[in-house]
Structures are given as C-alpha cells and as structure tokens.
Specification:
InterPro entries: 4Fe4S_Fe_S_CS, Citrate_utilization_prot_B, NarG-like_sf. The protein is mainly alpha-helical. Helices cover 69% and strands 2% of the residues. The chain has one domain.
C-alpha cells in the first residue's frame, strides 16, 4: 500500500525520536562502553539531535555485539535494538542526501527502480550489439586486439561510461557534501589531516568489525571473524578490479594497445584475482544474510543490501565469463551483458548501498576528529591538575 507523504514523514519522525530514546537509555546504562566507535561517540554527548542519529547510524558497522550483550532488548519494555534502528536511519540517509531528490526517492524507496534500470541497460547494450552486427554477427568469433570494439564501438563505450562515471561521482559528491554539512553543523573544531589518515586506517582495516578481536556477532550470537574477512575480499577485490580497469585505460589510450590482453598480462591478472575475490566474498556475505537473526534485521535494508550484493556479484561473474568465452562465439553476448550490468551499477550507485561507504567514511573522519579532541582535552586537563608533594617528590593527582 502506498503511504502518503504525511504518513512517511510521521514514520521518519517516530524513527528518530525512538532512536534518541534508545541512545539516552544506552548512555545512562553504558554496559556496552568500549564496544565500538558508536559507544564512545554517545559518551561524548548528553543530548542527541537528528544529525547525531544520522552520524551514529552511519558510524555503526552492524556487528550487533551490543544487541546480544544488552539486557534491555525485547521483550523488556525498553525495547533496545540499535542495529535495527540504525539500519532504518541509514536507508533514510541514502534517500535524503542523494541527488536528484525525485530520482533518489524512486530508486531509494522501491527496489523496482533498480530492476527497471537493469532491464533497460540490457536492452540498450544487447540491442545495440544486434543492431550493429545483426544476431548472426553478434555471435561471430572475434579475436585479437580491439575485438571488443567489433561488438560495441569504442566511441560508444567511452562516451557511455564517461557520462555514467561522472554521474556516479557527482552523485556521491553531492550526497557527501550534504551529509557532511549536517553532521558537522554543531562542530567548531576543524578536521586535521591526521584525522583523515586515522579514518582511512579504520576503514581499510575494518577495525569495528573485529568485535574486540573475537569477531562480530553476525549472523548469530556466536562471535566470528567471517564477515570481516568476506568484506575484505569484496573491498580489496573491487580495488584490484578498479586498478585493472585503470591500467587497461592507460594501455589503450596512452600506449595505444587495445583490449583484450593476453591471459598473463597485468591487466588480466589484476582483474581475475579481483573478480575471484569479489565472487567468494559476495557469495559468503549473501549466505550470511540468510542466517541472520530476524529480530535484529530491518527487512527492507536486508533486501536492498542483498540487491546490491547480487548486482555486484553479477558484474564480477559476467566479467569472468567474458574472460572465459572471449575466444568463442559467445564473447559478444557476455560482453554486452557485462557492460549492461556495469552501467546499471554506475547509474544506481548514488542511491544503492554502494553509497554507504561514502557516508561511513565521513562518519569515521568525524569520529577520528572527536576522538583526537577528546584525547587532547584529557591531556590538557591532566596538565592543569595541582601537584601534590609527598616525601619531597612532586607527583600529579
């Protein structure tokens, strides 16, 4: 059933108010003190604004340690459930800050928007290949340098993916500026370069998915490191594929050596290793999602996250299929499907879970700055403490 705008706004308002209630109770309890960055961040606050809730929600890595440790979860009347509340707020964040707003609502509030884009992309690329070469021509065997361009013209590839790449980056950038402006609205201290470096270290190591060393309680109450390592496989696999694509662009546009490249070429090696890492990681993460506790899950967040994981997995799988069939008559077909899947990923990136790394990284930067200021404040306060003389020796109280 379609909800009215007033009903949607009321539900969002109730979500934030309930989140603030939970954080105030958690701040009074502090049983989870030191669990992760979220619980340190709430200790530095006495009241919570809407912007604080957005910040905390995106700082949360959904490890769920706090939920399983908490004595006040349902059926207790307090009904504490930060992971579920934060998941809902994150989804609202993706819609609120994405640009343009009308498209953000279409893509962010309904999964049908993603599938429409995917179907259109397939029709464009597969249809384009058929129009250019005919059905029989598309399924001919093309080999050697530049054979990819026999299926999809080079100019078309460059134009389409340049536009889509700019769309993705601009969308992320606008969302980042809007989000950063809000979570920093009450801050007076400036962010230092050391804060950004610290945030990068936190992000690259997935520090807050380690559960203090034992692993996070996901998908079950038993601590495990599986999710952290699977995220590493996906993240670093994606970076290897990005490096492969960048290197391929260098070979093509600077050295004038077009794709496809030999199996043991650096471009192919990077792409293959990265693709395998992504496939293993994504299949593992999708499997873990099927085992998670429904009491902690937000149903829509899980569906949207799974859709993104499936889309990214499809990109990796079709990329490997292009490699495997590039000397056969099926190369043109799989190349068209692969390009369509990449185009879909690029177009939907500002509205899907692909954008979560932008907001989470900015949250980590904000946290690193707060952490540094708090640490420096403690040092100053300790230095100002009066000295006490005992047996002729000066010591700090």
């Amino acid at each position: 059933m379609q909800l009215s705008k007033e009903t949607k706004n009321q539900k969002i308002r109730e979500l934030y108010e309930d989140g603030k209630r939970q954080m105030e109770l958690c701040n009074a309890c502090r049983y989870c003190e030191g669990f992760c960055a979220v619980w340190r961040a709430i200790e530095w606050r006495r009241e919570f604004s809407d912007n604080d809730m957005k910040y905390l929600a995106n700082l949360c890595h959904d490890c769920r340690d706090c939920y399983y440790a908490c004595p006040f979860t349902t059926p207790h009347e307090f009904g504490i459930n930060p992971p579920k509340t934060f998941a809902k707020i994150r989804e609202e964040t993706y819609v609120k800050y994405a640009w343009p707003s009308s498209l953000a609502k279409l893509m962010g509030e309904k999964l049908t928007g993603f599938w429409i884009v995917f179907i259109v992309s397939i029709l464009v690329f597969v249809g384009g290949a058929f129009v250019k070469n005919g059905i029989s021509g598309t399924f001919e065997r093309y080999t050697g340098e530049g054979s990819f361009y026999e299926i999809i013209p080079k100019g078309v590839m460059i134009s389409v993916f340049t536009i889509l790449g700019l769309w993705m980056v601009v969308g992320w950038l606008i969302g980042a500026i809007r989000y950063w402006r809000d979570i920093r609205s009450s801050k007076t201290d400036k962010v230092a370069w050391k804060d950004i470096i610290t945030a990068i270290k936190y992000a690259m190591s997935l520090r807050y998915l380690d559960g203090g060393g034992a692993g996070c309680t996901y998908p079950t109450e038993k601590p495990a490191a599986n999710r952290r390592w699977l995220h590493h496989l996906v993240g670093y696999g994606f970076l290897l594929d990005f490096a492969s694509t960048t290197l391929a662009a260098f070979y093509d546009h600077v050295l004038h050596v077009p794709a496809p490249y030999p199996v043991f070429h650096p471009v192919v090696i990077l792409g293959t290793v990265g693709g395998i890492m992504m496939i293993i990681g994504l299949i593992g993460l999708l499997y873990l999602k099927t085992k998670t506790d429904k009491e902690v899950d937000d149903e829509f967040s899980v569906k949207k996250g799974s859709t993104f994981s499936v889309a990214l997995l499809f990109v990796a799988l079709t990329g490997m299929l292009v490699l495997g069939f590039r000397e056969t008559v099926l190369m043109g077909f799989w190349l068209s499907i692969h390009l369509a899947s990449v185009a879909t990923l690029f177009f939907t990136a500002p509205y899907s879970k692909f954008a979560h790394f932008v907001y989470r990284f900015l949250s980590l930067v904000n946290y690193a700055q707060e952490e540094r200021v708090e640490r420096e404040t403690r040092v100053v306060q300790k230095a100002k403490q009066p000295l006490v003389v005992q047996k002729g020796i000066k010591i700090n109280n």
